[in-house]
Amino acid sequence: MTATDAELIEASLRVPEEFALLFDRHAPHIQRYLARRLGQQAADDLLAEAFLVAFSKRERYDSSRPDARPWLYGIATNLVGQHRREEVRRHQVHPATSHVGDHADRVAADVTAQAMRSMLTGALAVLSTEDRDVLLLVAWEQLSYLEVAEALAIPVGTVRSRLNRARRKVREALGTDNHTEVEELLNNG
Amino acid sequence: MDDLQLVRELDDTPLKSADQLAAARAQLVAGIKPRRRGRAGVIAVATIAVAAAAAAVVVTVLPSGSPDEPRQDATPTGSTAPVDTAVQLLNHAAAAARSKPDEVPRPDQFYYVRNGEWEGWLSVDGTRDGRISTSRADEPVTTPGCVNGTRKVLDKYDKPTGATEKCTPVRAYRDDLPTTADDVLRLLKGEDKGRPVNSYGKDVLAMVSFSYLPGPQRAALFDAATQVPGLTVVEDVSSGRPGIGISWPVPEGSAPWAEPVVMVFDKDTYEYLGTKNSPQDAAGFVDQVGDRV
Question: Where are the transmembrane segments (chain B) (predicted)?
């Protein structure tokens, strides 16, 4: 039978190299999460660090939790928080029409898609760090409310209220109280 | 599809393979292995990783956000004729844009935009360091200006790293856009001959929402929009204050409950006010980052 994450972590207390198996299991998703938030370059640089931080904290891992993903996402989210400025700049996207002179005959469809993408990433940029953490762990990483609560060490009720606030702000920033207009903006880009 | 799904679809970052992650794994194993070195060794490796990351992060600085038209005193067009068609409304809006005494910022000024807690100070000529504050809870973020094709790379505390990168200035004041309807249309059309009205509408919306267009540029944009078939007038719509709107039909294949976007103009001055649900709180030119209008 395959060992649970908790069993691997416990084994790594005696044989540290066992911890690399946890990397094999979860690194692709943790790397993608870091890449989504900070870009590929930063994600590649921070991935090993995330697992080294986890390794250094493994003695305190709650062995009653078989799945270590929330724990690893929490550590990764802390690292993202240390690089918040990069993330904010990353979300400041270029207006669609800024290359008028030299790209006047570019493919219009691409530009429109980019414009809408700009509006949505712009909407993400207006969120506070704590609201964005919750929204992206739910929307991108598809963690449950319980898992997000575990990852961020906050009550489930707080997860729920932050998520509601984040969704409302995204809708507002896109200029609609009604998410169908958001959908409309993205349609047929 | 709900908004969570939209956020999800914004991203298409692929999962990396084990091969692609081998370097990071080796780094981890190197940090794990020397058990005798104890925790200090682990922390040392981690610290090196942080330093490497800080040095390697390529910061992309592209100020934008959701700026809107400033609340300036517009000159009424004098026209009291009822507006029945989108073409008429756009003609009025173009005339208003042309007749309005335009505020011309100095290159060293900033275009200030406020939308709820979001505030941005965007460099007029793209060469000055701007600032974006996403919420009161978070520290503001500096967006370095682009001077002579290079800009400085900042670390996570906004301190210069000493490194620079290539760039093109991102201007908040768009007097570089075309001033004739034909040129704007050419710009909007690109190479796509069979482009749907929805696509045009969204481009126009993005243009007026993301930067400040001087009167001639804005007028040309509105003139160009009159030539886009399918735009309709919406009476009695509001964006902060009551106005009159231009809309376009939702494209085929949209969800049955999809609502069209409405761009709202002042009823008397035809000044652009924002979209139906998103009026701008404040916008205008200021001398320094931190100044407000």
Answer: 42-62
